[in-house]
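Deviations from the work plan: none for this task. Representative record:
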Amino acid sequence: MFSYGVLRLLGLSLTLFAASIVVFVVLEVLPGDPAQVMLGISAQEDTLAALREQLGLNAPVLTRYVDWVLGMLQGDFGISYTYNVPVSELIAERAAVSLPLAAIALILSTAIAFPIGIMAARFRGKALDTGIMGLTQVGIALPNFWFAILLVYVFAITLRLLPSGGFPGWDQGVLNGLEALILPAIALALPQAAILARVMRSALIDVMSEDYIRTARAKGLSARVTLWRHGVRNALIPVLTILGLQFSFLVAGTVIIENVFYLPGLGRLIFQAITQRDLITVKSGVMVLVALVVLITFIVDLAYAAVDPRLRRGR
Amino acid sequence: MKVQGTLKALRSLAVGVALVVSASPLALSVAHAKSALSLGIVLEPPHLDPTAGAAAAIDEVTYANVFEGLTRIGPNGEVLPALAKSWEISEDGLTYTFELQDGVTFHDGTPFSAEDVKFSLDRARAEDSTNAQKPLFAAISAVNVADEDTVQVTLSEPVGSFLFNLGWGDAVIVSKESAAGNKTNPIGTGPFKFDRWIKGQEISLDRYEGYWGTPVALEEASFKVIADPNAAFAAMMSGDVDAFPNFPAPETLIQFEADPRFKVAVGSTEGETILAMNNESGPLSNKLVRQAISHAVNKQALIDGAMFGRGTPIGSHFAPHHPAYEDLTGTYTFDPEKAKELLKEAGYAEGFTATLKLPPPQYARRGGELIRSDLQKVGINLEIVPLEWAQWLSEVFREKNYDFTIVSHTEPMDIGIYARDDYYFNYKNPAFDDIITQLNRETDEEKRYALMKQAQEMIAADAVNVFLFQLGKAGVWDANLQGLWVNSPIQANDITGVSWKN
Amino acid sequence: MDTFEAPIHPFRRAWKSRSFLIGLCLASLILIAGFISLFWTPHAIDSLNVANRLQASSSQHWLGTDQYGRDILSMLMIGARTSIIVALIAVGIGLLFGVPLGLLAATKRGLVEEAVMRTNDLIFAFPAILSAILITALLGPGAVNAVIAIGIFNIPVFARVARGGALSLSGRDFLLAARLSGKSGLRITLEHVLPNIANLLIVQATIQLSLGILAEAGLSYLGLGPQPPLASWGRMLNEAQTMMAFAPQLALYPGLAIVVSVLGFNLLGDGLRDLLDPRLRRRIR
């Protein structure tokens, strides 16, 4: 188990290293001059040159790459061109929105998916199952940004129950913060819940056909007790894998939803940085997200290996 | 001098306005009214130092609120005194002597003096300056401190608009001690001081109690960044923001107009929106072709379709609310048949194919679709290429690698750009350059206006660009708010006169 | 083929599979609409007429007109075509590059496999939407670049499915027999492995197709997809948003179109899985 972990850790660092090269190279060739974007259309050539020098854009490519990577290893993510503050500060500020949002969405999605999935498995083949499965299909097909727009119109504009968007900041009270995250979390959670419910159902059906479940039933345990005591617990393993994947999706993949609700999250930070040619923020931001995804995958893999010894020998 | 007279009149007007403003807080305190304002802006400023960036969003937060210059631009585009309480101009128009206000302090407590003026102007025109409007200061040859409250600025040549130029956000006065940190912690002399900035979300200001001038009614103000038109609509409707001075979704204004909770103020801007043409690119180098295109574009349909009626047709590169404006909208009427004839005459009876590169704003993206359809009807096929600002700046603006683009030129009084060498229109007309040179030297108002009219006529006749419309400004705010600017003579949200009424 | 276990009445099974039938109907609806739009739409959409804008449904315009006076039904039909072509080519890219890579990894094992799978991990590590935004920022928005941005993320998916499928076949009698008869590795892969994993690939392709439609909608919602005069559902939605209060149909129709097509292809994929390989029936997406 330990050597497997070390091996995977090595692979993880290699992936991150490769990713840093990809990110750096892509941003090297991105058209558009950050200095021009900052100074606008009436800037003079000498002003631009002065700013480029100030931003360190004139150093050789290799130097800049090495500086960037070494800096990140020491926790220095560079200074944002546009905001003029350390990128690490920006990322921390945004993560304080993105991570709770992802967490709430995940909790919501689990809270919806588990009962539904279990119910469907329990009544497998019955009308209830068919109905639930049909609904989950629709849920998966629902574009979350469209759903989000519908939510805003119903709950924010028509009923005026919840804010239409924006984020007051956690220092304005946890409740106010949470209130701002409810609609985005629902918009994100529903399609995820649909997927999760399907995974739950099929995992449960898989488990319930295993021998030990039959044994349990033969011992005289009721169907309900068997389901809860043995079924659900064992079905959780594949479900947790999906949860891991969904969490990394929710942290990194919510740009569109953040745009609809104008939430200052990580995705929007990078999206805006791309359009403003705040290259250092894009570089470091993308790397942080990649590291996060890789890390979550690693943890999921480890958890899997801990459960299933066969995997330790290789993938 | 004549200019002096007008300025004096304006000054007394400003005093009057100040009296009205100062009277209102008394009334408000009785009614125990709101004293906070939440105001929506479309673009987030990259930083908050107006002397080191061109982004209009910087001025939209800081202008007049946080930072002040020697002069300032008023709600209708007039030049008003600010940190300079008065000035004198020498007969030859080369020396300006400014008398400064007393008792001014920066937000960090440091007193303001003539030294700060010298520091700021010298910094802006220095060799290594990163001021985005460096040309504004190009004519300054020396800045001298006469005494603590008097500054003398010497020019190398007369600049007719010098006092106006000093009113730009790029010319605000900063303190030597805090100038370096202004990007993240702006310290000015204005009635509001910077409080905090949640990146990507909002910037808040607090009332500065040590302000030298008339105290403002608002105790705090937050500028909320809302780029998405839909989110802007939702935020306004749900009361998340009290005012949106430059509302990004003109199609929704009908609903605000119908709702008594809101006031919709339609004003003018300095944004001449044009279909810019590369005057050196293939068929477009032919004046007849450019004239044909000017006839082929249905401007009214454009205003209706892209702006939902919010825009004023223009016939040249000049703001309709300016006294020197000349109505040239009849130069090229919408006439596809005429356009076809002109194209035939120019030798392009079969039409041609070209690219239309569009920056992100909605007027451009929407207008682009309509113009594409218009030009298709006369045989010109446009390929639409959407660009981000960064790409637009490098591809279109710098490299001039484009045929057509749509953009709004929001700088005030910027007809001079047509005389610039190597500007992205690639328009070259020595006669026009002469007019602008004369205009820059001329200080007599009447003569200046005559020259401006000549300039307008010339670029219209040459059909340099298709002059589409003056960008309308539609502000939406809570019906209980008063004192917001209706027009946008400069891109700013001056909230110094804003208060809640009850 | 020698691996099919019980090829009894595949069509009867198809008729009995509800999801297959519903999926087939919905997907066909979108496919046919898109196909017809190649030759004919009720109205032309590249000639705008502002005077005609925002009309309600009528016999002239079944679903009304948009803010530029274009016929919405025509826009939806062309939008269907755009979505499907983008998603289809993106799937093609995935198949073209992913399958050979996956098969290579499965047959060569060792270092090659390690390299392919690590590259896979690398692509998976990038947040898909953000990367697609980066790619379009790099190459410029438009249909072709949207295809590339979506296609790249299909490659590792197909590589993984192909490798997994191929590995599950290893040690099967017919492969051993082929090897003993002296066939080359490439021939065995092409003649025996590929046909046997075709089912897996078809099912995955259907699913990726629906994901591709969703991705295209997302990209064009952000303004990074196909550009005008081409219609696209995502952009229609984006443009309709601010007009929702007085013209909700503008936001409703494209949203429904996306749901219908994604639902259609998902159900079709599920149905095909049941149909083509009963052993896979219990697996999920």
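The CA atoms of residues 26 and 236 of chain A lie 39 Å apart.
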